[in-house]
Amino acid sequence: MKPKVGLMLGGGGAKGGYQLGVIKALQEEKLLDNIDCIAGTSIGAINGLLIATLKDADKIYETWVYAQEKQKEVKGFTRFKEDKRGLFSLDVLRDVFRKTIDIKKLENSPIDLYVVTSKLINPKLIASQIRTSNYEKCVFRINDAQDAMDKVIASASIPLYFGPTQIGLEFHVDGGVVDNNPIDVLIDAGCEVILTVPLDHGFDPSIYRHKNVMIINLTDLSVFQKVSILDAYDIIRFDQTHINEKANYGYFVAKDVISKLRDLNLLKKGLILNYNENFVKPTRYIYFDVPLETYEKVQKLKEERVIKRKEQKKRQKYQKKLNKKMKEDNQ
């Protein structure tokens, strides 16, 4: 009997590019079709929405690229000018969602999508956004919610940076404040096998050791910074080079983990997770050391991109000189 399978997508801003690579690997291995539930926080909520509506790794990646291009058009502290509750507006993200996804597909999706937000108990003062005691965890199943888009955006509303998002009469900010890795949401939803894609070193699956669930981690946390200030920079670094590098890591690590799961006979021929009650109880946490070859593959791709970029700049410089000379000759 097929177990109920959940996918946990943690929060982490631009580090969510790693999840793009994992999604591509899961799709190639036909495991994405076996996901019953997704629980996401912040960028994980956004990626969860894209999975449930677009159902294609390449389209999800293209949506990320489109969002980056639209964000470049935004100038200044757009949110601060409006209501001083944050610095930047998330209206660009709303526009991207409206133009790239059909929210009605979420209603008919076979995947139950849950997002986590942090409700502000006292939203009046902007300073209240930095008080952890002023938050209450909220979990929404958004498949049939009319305000599904707002709830996803609320889950990614970093306090002060973006400020709160209004849902009904309440104000919510980034779910990462209260639960950056919502495994418990999937356990409560009845998932017996949970694939996890955390993006931070605070991830600790051992706290669920008394639950009857198999947790399979698809993240190599050594990819991410441990030093807070460097990690904070990674969170806001939405440039294409950084996104691609993280996506490549996610892809190769996930492919390696899936290969090892197959070796352990935890995957059937049809690539459906092989469920064994004796194996699952008590909680089994599966994590594999990532081989050196994976890092070498990513490094090679990185070097190739650097060489390609240098050659492109050289051609542009040459073309600029040529155009200048032609202009001078014509005068």
TrEMBL record:
Active site, UniProt feature: 42 (nucleophile), 174 (proton acceptor)
Q: Keyword Lipid metabolism: yes or no?
A: yes
**UniProt entry keywords in alphabetical sequence:** Hydrolase, Lipid degradation, Lipid metabolism
Report the coiled-coil segments: none
* InterPro entries associated with the record: Acyl_Trfase/lysoPLipase, NTE, PNPLA_dom
* Motif range (GXSXG): 40-44
Molecular functions per Gene Ontology? hydrolase activity
Q: Where is the motif GXGXXG annotated in this sequence?
A: 11-16
Per UniProt, the ranges with Basic residues bias are 310-324
Domain of life according to the entry: Bacteria
Query: Which segments constitute the PNPLA domain?
Result: 7-187
Q: What's any GO biological process attached to this entry?
A: lipid catabolic process
Region Disordered: list its residue ranges. 310-331
Where does this chain carry the motif DGA/G? 174-176
What PROSITE patterns is this protein classified in? PNPLA
Tell me what this protein is called. Putative patatin-like protein
